[in-house]
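Morning. Coffee machine broken again, so started the prediction first thing and wrote up yesterday's gels while waiting. Chain of 134 residues, entered below exactly as on the submission form.
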Amino acid sequence: MSRGLNKVMIIGHLGRDPEMRFTPSGKPVTTFSVATNRTWNSSDGEKHSETEWFNVVAWGNLAEICKQVLTKSQQVYIEGRLQSRKWEDPDGNKHTSVEIVANEMLLLGERKESGWAPEDHPESDFPTDEEYPF
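Came back before lunch.
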């Protein structure tokens, strides 16, 4: 029997403060978004930058920790798995979303001043691929 692998690791900045809710059974769940940036030089030497946004979901004790320690603009390492969800809205439109279900979170860097937003700094405040040797 073959085995599969579903693992994702990202380093980025929080786009909003985490939001915590509770399931009907009382289990905590926290959601937040993380922006990652990638920069590269094209063959003609022109510098390019691309920001990718990820929705992150944390459950249980990790959900409580994320809500307590994370704030908008902080740099964070998230490890987990990808999960896709499909649903139909009241108008009958079908939707699909992909999110990271976190199983590990590490706070990186220092706290940023409030008011800093990743979309205001598309390349200068994000790490480049060259800064991470993995």
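The domain at 8-126 is CATH 2.40.50.140 (OB fold (Dihydrolipoamide Acetyltransferase, E2P)). Going to sketch it on the whiteboard this afternoon.
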